[in-house]
Amino acid sequence: MKKMKKRLSQQQEFEIMKLVLDKFLWLGFIILAFGMYTMVTDTISTGLIWSTAGTFLLILFMWIIVKEYEIVK
């Protein structure tokens, strides 16, 4: 006996995506903030690497959001 898969509406899909991406955006911000903290307390080069990684993560997820959902004015 095969089970029928439930289909999500576009709005439901978007709400789930927002919940998941919110966690990744927080992760990117925390990495960026850790890089700034490392720049102040340790070495600038190590902090710059962490900050660059956080910035890259935030840009990556911004690109995913723009690619996945068309922004209409």
Overall shape = elongated
Strand content: under 5%
| Helical stretch tally | 2
What class do helices, strands and sheet pairing give?
mainly alpha
- What is the number of E strands? 0
Oligomer class: single chain
State mean pLDDT (0 to 100 scale): 83
Uncertain regions spanning at least 5 consecutive residues: none
Helix content: over 70%
Q: How widely separated are the two ends?
A: 46 Å
Question: What would you say this structure looks like, in words?
Answer:
This protein has 73 residues and is mostly helical. It is 78% helix and 0% strand. Helix 1 runs antiparallel to helix 2. The longest helix is centred in the middle third of the chain and has 32 residues.
Layout of helices and strands, plus pairs?
Layout: H1 10-41, H2 44-68
Helix pairs in contact: 1-2
Brief sketch in words of this structure:
The chain has 73 residues and is mostly helical.
Please supply descriptive tags for the structure shown above.
mainly alpha; 0% strand; 73 residues
